[in-house]
Amino acid sequence: MEKFKSIKGQGLPYIIGETILYNLFIILMVIVINSYEFSNLFKIAFIVINIYELHYIFMYISLEYNIADEYIQISSIFGLKKEKIFFKDIEGYSQSKGEIKGVKLYGHGKDHFALGKSIIDKIGTAKMYVTCNKNIIYLKTQDITYGISPIDGDKFINILNGKKIKQGSWNYSTNKNINLYKDKKFFIPLIVVAVIIIILTLHPFVLYLYNKLPEKMPLSFDANFNPVKIGTGKQFAFKQMTYGVLNMAILFCMYYASYFYAKYDKKSAYKFIYVSLASSLLFFIMQIKVLLNFQ
How far apart, in whole angstroms, are the C-alpha atoms of residue 15 and residue 117? Predict the structure, then answer.
């Protein structure tokens, strides 16, 4: 198996710098905003963002392209993540240098590097494993295009030519028939989110109507879950309803974002509905905790 290292550019300092800025912002918000709800949101965001950022830092550091007799293997995260592209599936290739023009679907990327999945001008939807824009090779398959940036690009191209893979250009189109409601991976989380939001919104109000809430209920908490503002049961019920309305708005936005992304890549659309699921579930758990401790 012949190994090709990726060209190293300025992408790694960019990702590390972005990670530091995100962490400083979140830490500042946790210190400044003395709120139980928002403190938990920022703590969860801290964990998720750092996992996300470290994933791409390790990918950038360890990315390499290995060529076997029948396939190209893209290896990253110190060999933990591997993806094979069989030569028989490659319909053609093209080369590019300079600014990467496109729209990021997910991952990391600027005009000089791209990791993740993007919509690239004149290429279409592509899985990007490009650490530098000095020499980019796009490999076209029926399902998707792959972008890579090996150090010895000419040698890599000679191997492709030896496999009778031709250089060329191609057309691409967006998905016109988008039926996410028929996809269980999308529809089931959507229903779960809707049910959670309905319970989150109506449950406290129903408790109030049936006089199941105490006359005095905490309306807000500090970061340590100590009540800082006390109100009536009615005020508590209406405040919880506002959290439900907030999550309805988030679901609405995530739903339409999913449909927009599904035009270019259906798998990328799933992440939005799971953002809404995480948000509604967090607020629901906090509501249950309040009711268990103060009802």
Answer: 16
Cβ distance 56 to 15 under 8 Å? yes
Q: How many CA atoms lie within 13 A of 191 on its CB side?
A: 8
Given the structure tokens 């991976």, which residue do they identify?
185
Cβ–Cβ < 8 Å for 144, 125: yes
State the pairing for strand pair 81-86/145-148.
unpaired
Q: Is the pLDDT of residue 22 over 90?
A: yes
Residue with tokens 């309905």: 198
Q: Report which of 64, 73, 235, 79 is spatially closest to residue 150, judged by C-alpha positions.
A: 64
Six-digit token string for 3: 């190994």
The CA distance from 113 to 248, in Å, is: 36
Mean predicted confidence (pLDDT) in 108-116? 90
Task: Count the neighbouring beta carbons within 10 Å of the beta carbon of residue 86.
Answer: 11
Helix/strand/coil for 56: helix
Token output for 288: 């249950």
Query: DSSP states of 72-138 as a string?
Result: EEEEETTTTEEEEEEGGGEEEEEEE-S---EEEEEEEE-SS-EEEEEEETTTEEEEEEES-TTSEEE
Residue 217 contacts residue 230 (beta carbons within 8 Å)? yes
Whether 173 shows a pLDDT value over 70: the answer reads no
Query: Is 32 exposed, middle or buried (CB count within 10 Å of its CB: 0-12, 13-18, 19+)?
Result: exposed
- CA-to-CA distance for 285 and 37, rounded, in angstroms? 11
pTM > 0.85: yes or no: no
CB 193 within 8 A of CB 244: no
List, in order, residues 6 or more apart from 117 with CB less than 8 Å away.
104, 105, 106, 107, 125, 126, 127, 128, 265, 268
